[in-house]
Design goal:
single chain; about 90 residues; mainly alpha
Length: about 90
């Protein structure tokens, strides 16, 4: 589907404004001004509770993990590479 976006935008620019858009910006600003304002102390208290909760979540998520086991390091030229084709073809002996 080929659409001439520049032509469509030019056509839209030349159209008259929709009557429902008149006064919309002012109505939005009035609704924003009517919202209850939150005090700085309340914002600080909520931020401190959120930070404390984040620290507790970090401690809890780290505290209940099983200890990590030592992993085998894989190197392509190492003497004991368990994924080398020679060891995979021989199997367990």
């Amino acid at each position: 589907m080929k659409t001439d976006l520049d032509g469509l935008l030019t056509r839209l620019r030349n159209e008259p404004d929709h009557p429902g858009l008149i006064g919309l910006e002012e109505a939005v600003f009035q609704r924003i001004a009517a919202l209850p304002q939150v005090s700085a102390a309340s914002q600080l208290r909520f931020g401190a509770v959120a930070a404390f909760g984040a620290v507790l979540l970090g401690i809890a998520s780290n505290g209940f993990t099983p200890p990590a086991e030592a992993s085998v390091t894989l190197s392509p030229f190492g003497p004991s590479n368990p994924l080398a084709p020679s060891t995979l073809l021989v199997g367990s002996q």
